[in-house]
Amino acid sequence: MVMVDQAKPVMRSYLAATPDFASGKATPRQFLDRSLELLDEWEPRIGAFVCTSLPAARAAADRSAERWRAGKPLSPIDGMPIGIKDIIETVDMPTEMGSPLFAGWRSEKDAASVRALRDAGCVIVGKTVTTEFAAFHPRGTRNPWNTAHTPGGSSSGSAAAVGAGVLSAALGTQVIGSTIRPASFCGAFGFKPSVNGLNREGSHDYQSQSCTGVLAASLEDAWQVAYEIVARVGGDAGTPGLQGPDKMPPAAKPRRLAVLETAGWDAAPVGAKQQLNECVGRLNWAGIEIRTRQNDDTVAALESELLNAAELSHRCNGWETRWFFRSMRERDADKLSPAIRERSQKYENLTLAEHRADLKERDRVRAVHAALAATCDACITLSALGGAPAGLTATGNPEFAVPASLLGVPALSLPLFEVDAMPLGLQVIGFRDRDADAFAAAAWLVSQLK
Amino acid sequence: MVMVDQAKPVMRSYLAATPDFASGKATPRQFLDRSLELLDEWEPRIGAFVCTSLPAARAAADRSAERWRAGKPLSPIDGMPIGIKDIIETVDMPTEMGSPLFAGWRSEKDAASVRALRDAGCVIVGKTVTTEFAAFHPRGTRNPWNTAHTPGGSSSGSAAAVGAGVLSAALGTQVIGSTIRPASFCGAFGFKPSVNGLNREGSHDYQSQSCTGVLAASLEDAWQVAYEIVARVGGDAGTPGLQGPDKMPPAAKPRRLAVLETAGWDAAPVGAKQQLNECVGRLNWAGIEIRTRQNDDTVAALESELLNAAELSHRCNGWETRWFFRSMRERDADKLSPAIRERSQKYENLTLAEHRADLKERDRVRAVHAALAATCDACITLSALGGAPAGLTATGNPEFAVPASLLGVPALSLPLFEVDAMPLGLQVIGFRDRDADAFAAAAWLVSQLK
Question: Which residue from B5, B1, B3, B29 is spatially nearest to B17, judged by alpha carbons?
Fold first, then answer.
């Protein structure tokens, strides 16, 4: 039986609540208790969690409350209830990767990002559902806006739990569309950083264009989670990591924005395009110069380079993961979904030389995009083709999220649109290692368009 | 009771044996059986293995024999008995990382490098001893040249097993001196590739200057193992990986070599310096131009930049691992060695800004070294201060291996010297991503100096 929820879900920003913790009017434990009420209410309907660790979470929230009381929180998000995508290791819970092959498997350690969040005082509520190995095969999570619809993937549980207001933030990952798409579908804010921006050690989404990202109830919550990670464990080893201030940069009005109509654009429903067009009209009216392929050759060049983005991304990922899936097929092919069994064999014949050529080609496309920084502050487009489609057997089209993944640049999904009573995100695509600028532009867009 | 072995250990190249497999005169199974005889003979004395997988190894060798018989080996090293440093994951054996905290722990998957070796037909004999978390604390392995002496570390078991002739090759890793030093101490060939050269996914030696490397019975064996890995799983995701031909490049006489006297040089025993000096004299006599700080300003500049190499390396590693060791201390500090408990706290107060400055400083030193490529074909120096010191409580001074680690460049240890009846390596240090050139020069040096 499928039920359509009556009231729209309401997200719960943690940063918005913390002034009351500082003043003593409320406590992180109370915030968590409300999360757990919402968990009881929502979880049977949306199935966002693989497992939870509630006694430990309550104890952590109590410790956080003491720190706030003493005026010594470990970070601005000390006490934040947070979820960890089940592709990322946790010392106190299994990491099952959405696969029966890893049922009950324990890493016996925290991933770098998880350890950082603990050290920032965050309250780890549980592991959120990922599709099988953070790829396509869904594992039953439902969309809080309409439980007959997919939440998107692969960060399905993170997006559903944040969208439902159960969690203020959750870690996700993205190599194709796994953070931006579910954020869009569940009405959450989504942030995929520049590649290497957040330390991925202990995450099993580890292809060359994979990123650990954040699903959150507000832009501020998303930035703070990312910042507290990078401040403690940096980006991927040997890289400078996410750059930016210790609080979200203030809103900054962009001067010029490029509107991207990338592969799949023609298939987007009229209602979705209309919303973007209206939004672009308002931005233009507000004095922002709008660049498109009609009036900007660089935009046109970038769009045509990106036509092949999905295939190139899949080939890169395919090379990088085929040895792993070969092992998994040998271990027990019956425990793999037919889809992954088939698709993981697609790139078996790629040679090292071909893979190297793909990496070079990706660098070339990245350079085409980087040139756009001379004339634009950011690109905008839809986060997904439209609202979350009905059905739970697939996670929806990721095509609009692919360009930022291929380019290795920051992307944000802002829950500003609605199509057929389902949320849809405005996607802001920034420039490599200028994540803070993307947030500043996004903050301005939210303030104007909300 | 300490026993001094009478006969010098003899290494066993696999590639040298394969012509007999092709002709049908011998089989990989016979080669393995000899390995297992030597294992029985040596293992009680040297303790190179954490665990073995002998029935599977015999079965794999039998399958390899069938392929050779059919004229269809999977690679030139199909059937090679190989060991895997126990910091690298294996699906069929635990990965204990030299720590009681991971006693019996199973990754339930192969590391990329291990999977590649299996696909190349290699016979995985067992997991070789690593120091605690591939750092300093030794785990009891002894040197096959004199069991009262350390084999070096952290790739202790890999070096000892190859040095003793039990294995033709074994995987090691290096972030400071963990491949070059034990290779030198055990009289094996050691190869630390350019950084990112061999895919490290599933290796828990994962700092930014860590490399998966090879200990081997010959240069040819070392190259082939590395090549078969990169051909199948590439370098670290998103990098081109080790570059070079599918067989070891032919020996090439260098025109100019720089002799490096880096930090610690003054402490090297006279006998060790004498051997290097004699070797340099022979090379000069053979017509190779020798550059030193006395006659080359770039060499002098590089040497002074490298005076700080150990401290800078330790600071980079310290930032990159502190979150992990913090977790391990919390899990059970009593299961950590006192040394690692103490040293892992040394860099707790480093800030992200300081770490970023360290990474920039490392890049600056790397550029100074890269400039040397204009005038030199490679650098040479000792692989270690001297022969393996007596005692098993420490793994010896790694200082001479640090420069190549910091620089992220290929390094080879060639077992050409002996000091006080213990082996000592000539170290060849190449240029970044020109690993094949380093092998060509090393092959020439071996042919001339052996």
Answer: B29
Q: Select which of A13, A53, A85, A155 is catalytic.
A: A85
Q: Which helix (H) or strand (E) holds B129?
A: none
A109: chain B residues, CB-CB within 8 Å: 324, 327-328
Sheet holding B422-429, edge to edge: B49-52, B123-128, B81-85, B169-174, B211-216, B189-192, B411-419, B422-429, B378-382, B256-259, B289-291
Beta bridge pairs of residue B188 = none
Between CA A243 and CA A231 the distance in angstroms is: 10
Name the strands in the sheet holding A189-192, side by side, starting at the edge strand that comes first in the sequence: A49-52, A123-128, A81-85, A169-174, A211-216, A189-192, A411-419, A422-429, A378-382, A256-259, A289-291
**ipTM beyond cut 0.85:** yes
- Reported as a single tens digit per residue, the pLDDT across B313-338 is 999 999 999 999 999 999 999 999 99
Radius of gyration of chain B (CA): 20
Tell me the β-bridge partners of A141: none
Look at residue A13 in the predicted model and tell me its pLDDT: 98
Helices (H), ranges, A47-179: 54-69, 112-119, 156-163
Q: Provide DSSP, B178-200.
A: TTHHHHHHHT-EEEEPSTT-S--
The predicted structure's pLDDT at residue B443: 98
CA–CA dist A37, A35 (Å, integer): 5
Q: How far apart are CA A381 and CA A262, in angstroms?
A: 9
Query: Average pLDDT in the B417-431 region?
Result: 97
* Contacting residues for B66 by C-beta, under 8 A, at least 6 apart: none
Where do we find the tokens 């959450």? A188
B125 vs B292: CA distance, rounded Å: 44
A109 labelled catalytic: no
B415, B185 contact by CB (below 8 A): no
Contact B305, B368 (CB under 8 A): yes
Q: Does domain B1-252+381-450 have CATH number 3.40.190.10?
A: no
Kindly report the backbone phi and psi dihedral angles of residue A336, in degrees, each rounded to the nearest multiple of 5, phi listed first.
-100, 150
**Bridge partners for A169 per DSSP:** A82, A216
Q: What is the pLDDT of residue A6?
A: 59
Kindly state the DSSP code that residue A428 receives in the 8-state scheme.
E
A154 is catalytic: yes
Of A110, A206, A240, which has the smallest distance from its Cβ to B359's Cβ?
A240
